[in-house]
């Protein structure tokens, strides 16, 4: 496990300090029972131990995903936005960047337009590692 300090807002005096705890996949894998059940959804780690009894889809499906990346099964079910909102309360940290799957197939094309300047429009592909991080961009002119 590693904890990394980062600035949430990047603005001075706005109190945007955040701290992220990173977990290796092998550590997540150890929490695979009803006593302690962690799973990974989209690069984020969730401790759903106390949710086992409450999950509307039953505890069995959660146990099947115990200690592993459950992103695909989570999405296959087509969980509601309420379900996605619930995730927040079980979030305990992010997967360590070294353990994130290479997502070469999922690139995002960023297009920046600068209305004040007729010459400047930037297009560049970026790789999506995980959400929640800040990207700083510098205006070209
Ligand atoms: C912390 C993670 C999860 C949360 C917060 C969660 C939450 C919910 C909620 C609120 C529902 C009710 C329907 C809805 O609102 O979408 C539901 C249903 C269900 N969930 Fe999850 N879920 C989680 C993980 C999973 C995972 C990993 C699976 C794996 C297959 C799963 C399978 C199901 C199934 C099969 C249903 C029933 C769908 C139905 O009856 O139509 N869930 N879940």
Automatic annotation (TrEMBL):
<dbReference type="GO" id="GO:0046872">
    <property type="term" value="F:metal ion binding"/>
</dbReference>
<keyword id="KW-0812">Transmembrane</keyword>
<dbReference type="InterPro" id="IPR050668">
    <property type="entry name" value="Cytochrome_b5"/>
</dbReference>
<dbReference type="GO" id="GO:0020037">
    <property type="term" value="F:heme binding"/>
</dbReference>
<keyword id="KW-0408">Iron</keyword>
<keyword id="KW-0349">Heme</keyword>
<keyword id="KW-0472">Membrane</keyword>
<keyword id="KW-0249">Electron transport</keyword>
<dbReference type="GO" id="GO:0005741">
    <property type="term" value="C:mitochondrial outer membrane"/>
</dbReference>
<feature type="domain" description="Cytochrome b5 heme-binding">
    <location>
        <begin position="20"/>
        <end position="96"/>
    </location>
</feature>
<dbReference type="Pfam" id="PF00173">
    <property type="entry name" value="Cyt-b5"/>
</dbReference>
<dbReference type="InterPro" id="IPR018506">
    <property type="entry name" value="Cyt_B5_heme-BS"/>
</dbReference>
<comment type="similarity">
    <text>Belongs to the cytochrome b5 family.</text>
</comment>
<keyword id="KW-0479">Metal-binding</keyword>
<protein>
    <submittedName>
        <fullName>Cytochrome b5 type B isoform X1</fullName>
    </submittedName>
</protein>
<dbReference type="InterPro" id="IPR001199">
    <property type="entry name" value="Cyt_B5-like_heme/steroid-bd"/>
</dbReference>
<dbReference type="InterPro" id="IPR036400">
    <property type="entry name" value="Cyt_B5-like_heme/steroid_sf"/>
</dbReference>
<keyword id="KW-0813">Transport</keyword>
